[in-house]
């Protein structure tokens, strides 16, 4: 019998080569979660360590801390980049309770959908998986409760093996008996596309994912085909775009953990269709996902860019500036703005108001022949150890970007203003798409024609602009914190923070005159490739005397996957590859304002769930 | 008996080669292609799918690799195993991005299962004679989802091809490829 078993195992083995053997040990791989301190953490960020140890964690009684000997050994190995310990907490516990129980020192990643813990097989506190970071393969798994398994972490043995024991572990084990508790990781629910999934896609995804440029999710066949990628982008935090911390504040594009959980569990349980009509497909066939024209009446003013831009298939392109209109003959108050452009190549396009004609003389030449964005008028200039900064009003009306908004439709009574005598222009940053492309933008305005000017509330955009800073090579945590006092009552309606490829996170906080502090916006996973506007569901009133505090963190290390070159010193400037910017932009209106900024039926912000 | 067991175990552990199954696939123009032609030295397969921004950005690089290595006896094929792409959509993608490498249809995902590719842009280098995999993974580490790196990078496929064509062992056999994840039929209910 033994012989037969071995023979069969030999036959099976003969059909498995080293690639197959590696596949068998493959872990679920990359993921991204926010820890108890609001910091975004990803597995791949630690690929400069030999090993990562994932440990299931929950604040059950008596189990909040691991033994100090264990911590000391881990700390030693973390210092030498041998091993990084990451705790994962899939229990629905608040961050505050985790900080209270376990402190803030060691990151505990909050797995709000339970998808990460389940895929790595973490079911009980103390369950661990040891991952080789070069191959992303599993080396061992077990429980810290089991001394043999604990040893396997430090000896990197593939099984829990007592023979290669180390003295300190035995001493440790003598006093180490943590209580274990269930992490309450639930089995995935078999959601169906027709019942639960298509409404989530309609609400959060298809306003972009309805065409061939971004992947089309507007039918069961398409969505199921993309399901592995849907799962991947949700687990890695690439989607939903913007990298905002949903734990802080209420925004129009919030995607709650329930919606993410439905999509993840659907992909996990075989992406089933379910009975009934494919209503998303029906909507698509009826033209609902066609360009904006079907949702709004014809624009009142249309400006077409005169010069057509040809964008090559590959290479790196300098910023380009194009006049769109002007001088404007009378003040234009408008509530709607749409830009039609080639989204495949327009990495971003800033539509801005200029008081002078857009000519080459306006664009300040840098030494290397590149251009600097026209300076904004400074209100008040301050200085600190890094250089000057100022609270400025911005002239940019809208930033159209890849995968981001191309239209803005304001709530009734709110208006943008283009003053008489000024010019409209676009600053382009193109990134080639792999084939030769053309771009010739069309700007459409929906104006207030008969409204009384005094009844309109102009939207303003301000920022705490920082100039003259320099990020050293390989610096992983370059932090700029600024603050400025708001002199008049305002209502904040939204944010559009801006950095370049070294940008890691943004936080904007209000400290009210009574001393109370409130985080208005937290973007722990800033991504250069997608910089949506973060629009508040309801405006936040800041009385005069409130201090606006901002924190931007830059990561110029090789661990930042966005970083084009960690060996470079990065100065402040406009070039995305070589320079950095510090612009924590804030949309606001003067005085008090009830409600949010956008029209309820703004296609780019609401989605199509009402149509289902 | 014990000796026999040891010998069998050893034989099982050292069995390292699993040849790819010989297959003939149809391209988007309806032409048949035998994947592993013994007249050539190597076959390079690249997992393909429509609407994948990262793959689109890499197309010029991939096409250049084919131009460089074809004269050295290397055949290149894009393999579309994506469930969501129709032949018409793939044909449109082929025409829009001016692909010269044949774009093969793998709707049954046999090649995907055989090679173990998981995402578009992932590549497999196969010895045409033995049909064994020599390299699997990323074409280059120059591209990530976020950005095209301007600093130092490794073009993994070129390195593997140069080593293989020079008769040397491919040192780095596997890397992790980024791209658009491919849903497998077996993962669906």
Distance between the termini of chain B: 46 Å
Q: Helicity level of chain A, as a percent range?
A: 10-25%
User: What Rg of chain B do the Cα atoms give?
Assistant: 18 Å
- The low-confidence parts of chain A are 1-13, 160-168, 171-177, 360-379
Largest interface: A-B, 59 and 52 residues
Essential attributes:
heterodimer, A: 612 residues, alpha+beta, seven-stranded mixed β-sheet, six-stranded mixed β-sheet, 35 strands, globular, B: 189 residues, alpha/beta, five-stranded mixed β-sheet, 30% helix, disordered N terminus
Describe this structure in words.
The complex is a heterodimer of chains A (612) and B (189). Chain A is 18% helix and 31% strand. By secondary structure, chain A is α+β, with helices and mostly antiparallel strands. The termini of chain A are far apart. The relative contact order of chain A is 0.11. Mean pLDDT of chain A is 82; it is low at 1-13, 160-168, 171-177 and 360-379. Helices cover 30% and strands 17% of the residues of chain B. The chains are: A alpha+beta (612), B alpha/beta (189). Chains A and B meet through α1, α2, β9, α9 and α10 of A and α1 and α2 of B.
Task: Give a summary of the structure in a few sentences.
In chain A, 18% of the residues lie in helices and 31% in strands.
Please outline the helices and strands.
The complex is a heterodimer of chains A (612) and B (189).
Chain A: H1 2-14, H2 18-24, E1 32-35, E2 40-42, E3 51-56, H3 68-79, E4 83-89, H4 95-102, E5 108-110, H5 115-119, E6 127-132, E7 137-143, H6 147-155, H7 167-175, H8 193-204, E8 210-211, E9 215-216, H9 220-225, H10 227-235, H11 257-268, H12 279-285, E10 301-304, E11 309-311, E12 320-325, E13 332-340, E14 346-354, E15 364-365, E16 371-372, E17 378-384, E18 387-393, E19 396-401, E20 407-409, E21 414-418, E22 423-430, E23 437-439, E24 442-447, E25 457-458, E26 460-466, E27 470-471, E28 478-485, E29 490-498, E30 503-511, E31 517-523, E32 534-542, E33 547-554, E34 570-571, E35 583-590, H13 603-606
Parallel strand pairs in A: 3-4, 4-5, 21-25
Antiparallel strand pairs in A: 1-2, 1-5, 3-6, 6-7, 8-9, 10-24, 11-23, 12-22, 13-20, 13-21, 13-24, 14-19, 14-22, 15-16, 17-18, 18-26, 26-35, 27-34, 28-33, 29-32, 29-35, 30-31, 30-33
Helix pairs in contact in A: 8-11, 10-11
Chain B: H1 2-14, E1 24-26, E2 32-34, E3 42-48, H2 53-69, E4 74-80, H3 87-96, E5 103-105, H4 110-115, E6 123-127, E7 133-137, H5 156-165
Parallel strand pairs in B: 3-4, 4-5
Antiparallel strand pairs in B: 1-2, 3-6, 6-7
């Amino acid at each position: 019998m033994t012989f037969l078993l071995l023979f069969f195992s030999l036959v099976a083995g003969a059909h498995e080569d080293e690639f197959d053997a590696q596949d068998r040990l493959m872990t679920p791989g990359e993921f991204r979660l926010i820890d108890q301190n609001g910091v975004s953490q990803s597995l791949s960020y630690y690929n400069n360590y030999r090993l990562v140890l994932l440990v299931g964690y929950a604040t059950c009684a008596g189990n909040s801390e691991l033994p100090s000997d264990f911590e000391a050994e881990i700390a030693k190995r973390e210092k030498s980049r041998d091993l990084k310990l990451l705790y994962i907490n899939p229990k629905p516990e608040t961050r505050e309770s985790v900080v209270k129980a376990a402190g803030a020192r060691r990151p505990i990643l909050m797995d709000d959908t339970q998808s990460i813990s389940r895929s790595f097989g973490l079911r009980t506190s103390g369950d661990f998986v040891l991952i080789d970071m070069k191959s992303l393969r599993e080396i061992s798994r077990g429980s810290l409760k089991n001394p043999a398994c604990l040893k396997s972490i430090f000896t990197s043995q593939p099984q829990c093996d007592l023979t290669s024991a180390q003295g300190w572990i035995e001493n440790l084990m003598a006093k180490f008996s943590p209580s274990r508790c269930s992490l309450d990781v639930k089995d995935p629910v078999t959601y169906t596309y027709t019942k639960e999934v298509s409404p989530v896609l309609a609400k959060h995804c298809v306003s972009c994912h309805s065409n061939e440029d971004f992947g089309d999710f507007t039918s069961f066949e398409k969505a199921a085909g993309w399901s592995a990628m849907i799962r991947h982008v949700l687990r890695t935090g690439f989607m939903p775009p913007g990298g905002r911390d949903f734990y802080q504040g209420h925004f129009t594009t919030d995607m709650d953990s329930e919606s993410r959980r439905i999509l993840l569990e659907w992909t996990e349980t075989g992406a089933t269709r379910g009975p009934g009509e494919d209503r998303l497909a029906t909507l698509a066939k009826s033209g609902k996902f066609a360009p904006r024209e079907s949702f709004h009446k014809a624009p009142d003013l249309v400006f077409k860019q005169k010069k057509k831009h040809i964008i090559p298939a590959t290479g790196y392109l300098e910023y380009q500036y194009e006049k769109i209109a002007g001088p404007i003959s009378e003040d234009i108050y408008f509530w709607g703005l749409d830009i039609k452009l080639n989204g495949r190549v327009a990495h971003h396009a800033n539509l801005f108001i200029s008081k002078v004609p857009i000519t080459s003389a306006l664009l300040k030449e840098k030494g290397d022949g590149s251009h600097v964005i026209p300076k904004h008028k400074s209100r008040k200039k301050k200085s600190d150890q890094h250089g000057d900064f100022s609270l400025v009003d911005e002239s940019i009306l809208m930033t159209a970007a890849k995968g981001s908004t191309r239209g803005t439709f304001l709530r009734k009574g709110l208006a943008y203003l283009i003053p008489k005598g000024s010019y409209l222009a676009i600053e382009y940053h193109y990134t080639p798409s792999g084939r030769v492309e053309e771009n010739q933008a069309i700007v459409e305005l929906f104006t207030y024609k008969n409204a009384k000017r005094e009844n309109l509330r102009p939207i303003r955009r301000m920022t705490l602009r920082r100039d003259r800073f320099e990020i050293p090579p390989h610096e992983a945590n370059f932090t700029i914190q600024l603050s400025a006092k708001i002199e008049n009552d305002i209502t904040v309606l939204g944010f559009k923070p801006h950095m370049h490829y070294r940008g890691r996170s943004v936080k904007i906080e209000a400290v009210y005159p009574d001393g109370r502090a409130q985080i208005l916006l937290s973007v722990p996973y800033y991504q250069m490739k997608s910089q949506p506007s973060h629009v508040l569901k309801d405006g936040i009133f800041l009385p005069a005397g409130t201090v606006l505090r901002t924190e931007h963190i830059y990561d110029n290390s090789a661990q930042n996957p966005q970083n084009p070159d960690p060996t470079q010193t990065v100065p402040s400037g406009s070039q995305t590859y070589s320079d950095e910017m510090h612009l924590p932009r804030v949309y606001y209106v003067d005085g008090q304002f009830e409600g949010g900024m956008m029209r309820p039926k703004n296609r780019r912000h609401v989605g199509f769930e009402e149509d289902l | 008996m014990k000796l026999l067991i040891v010998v069998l175990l050893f034989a099982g552990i050292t069995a390292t080669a699993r040849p790819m199954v010989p297959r003939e696939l149809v391209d988007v123009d309806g032409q048949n292609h035998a994947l592993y032609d013994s007249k050539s030295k190597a076959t390079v397969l690249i997992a393909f799918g429509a609407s994948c921004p990262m793959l689109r950005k890499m197309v010029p690089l991939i096409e250049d690799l084919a131009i460089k290595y074809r004269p050295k006896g290397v055949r290149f094929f894009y393999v579309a195993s994506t469930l969501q792409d129709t032949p018409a959509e793939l044909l449109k993608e082929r025409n829009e991005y001016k692909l010269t490498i044949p774009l093969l249809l793998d709707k049954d995902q046999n090649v995907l299962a055989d090679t173990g590719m998981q995402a578009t842009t992932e590549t497999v280098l196969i010895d045409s004679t033995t049909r064994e995999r020599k390299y699997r993974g990323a074409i280059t580490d120059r591209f990530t989802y976020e950005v095209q790196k301007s600093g130092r990078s490794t073009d993994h496929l070129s390195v593997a091809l140069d080593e293989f064509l020079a008769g040397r062992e491919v040192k780095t056999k596997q890397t992790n490829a980024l791209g658009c994840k491919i849903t497998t039929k077996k993962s669906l209910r």
